[in-house]
Amino acid sequence: MRLGISESGVGADAILQGGDATDETGGDIRIVSGYSRKTTSGLVIIETANSGSNGASGYLLLQSGTAEGGDSGWINVSTGRASGGTAGSISMSVGEGDSGTGGDISFTAGASL
Fold it and tell me: 4: Cβ–Cβ under 8 A, 6 or more apart, which residues?
């Protein structure tokens, strides 16, 4: 899916949303790469585009929703099990800048209120 190009205004948004439910769990969204019977499965890449000469590249937000009367959702980052090979790694890094200090990585545990 690709939306049109805006020459003078803001580009169009794309929203992929699971179905809403009144009495049961809302619908899921699942993005899965292609399977290969003999070699490597396909990649799943989620990224923001590069900026123009006078802007910043977009934010990438991974966030669970707020819960009313229950527990909020969870975020799990993990690699799969390797059968006959080495398990995958998890890498996080901050980009470089031409001026000022480099970016930060921050982890904060939640509070119990």
Answer: 12
Residues 6+ apart with CB under 8 A from 99: none
d(CA 26, CA 19): 6
Distances (CA, A) of 84 to 35, 43, 88: 18, 21, 12
* Model pLDDT for residues 54-111, shown as the tens digit of each residue: 888 888 888 888 888 888 888 889 998 888 889 999 898 888 888 877 788 888 888 7
54 secondary structure, DSSP code: T
* Distance between CA atoms of residues 85 and 98, nearest Å: 40
> If you compute the radius of gyration of the chain from its CA atoms, what whole number of angstroms results?
19
| Residue 74 contacts residue 63 (beta carbons within 8 Å) | no
Write down how long the chain is: 113
